[in-house]
Design brief:
Layout lengths: L1 E4 L5 E4 L8 H5 L6 H10 L4 H10 L3 H8 L3 H10 L4 H20 L4 H9 L10 H4 L3 H15 L5
Antiparallel strand pairs: 1-2
């Protein structure tokens, strides 16, 4: 926060907030609209998106791979081919979208988002949001939980 004093005695306050990344920014991909994003997913995202997501989330590779449903041997093949399948690409986008939403929930605090996604949550039956997000249905439930938290409904 910065205080600015003008010559006429009026004070203004500049409040700097952390930018909340989008799923695309977390993955380092550019798509001007959903249609373009779907086209990229259908072609298969490059291997570099995983590396970027791992760096941005700070989560270990094995944890991300488990959440994405990618076996270690399959991961090594993707590393060699430098691309993911459309199904794997879709899961990468889904996970990055979820993480971006959690970062937004914590007003840009990526450390708090990482902590929340990896801690057991009573609303998810004691499971971590990350573990719950291994399926589409589980991901939707974590998104619903985020919505309830945003609206002050915790039960």
């Amino acid at each position: 926060m910065a205080y600015n004093y003008k010559p006429d005695g009026i004070m203004s306050i500049d409040i700097k907030t952390k930018e909340t990344p989008t799923a695309q920014k977390l993955l380092g991909i550019r798509a001007t609209n959903t249609l373009k994003l779907v086209e990229k997913i259908e072609k298969g995202l490059p291997f570099s998106v995983f590396v970027r997501l791992r760096k941005r989330t700070g989560l270990p590779s094995d944890v991300l791979l488990e959440t994405l449903g990618i076996k270690p041997r399959t991961f090594m093949r993707r590393k060699k081919t430098k691309a993911f399948t459309p199904e794997e690409s879709d899961r990468l986008v889904s996970l990055s979208r979820l993480f971006a939403r959690i970062i937004a929930l914590f007003e840009g605090d990526e450390d708090a988002a990482r902590d929340w996604i990896t801690k057991p949550n009573r609303a998810l039956g004691g499971s971590t949001p990350l573990k719950f997000a291994t399926t589409q249905t589980g991901t939707r439930e974590v998104e619903n939980l985020i919505g309830r938290i945003e609206h002050g409904v915790f039960g």
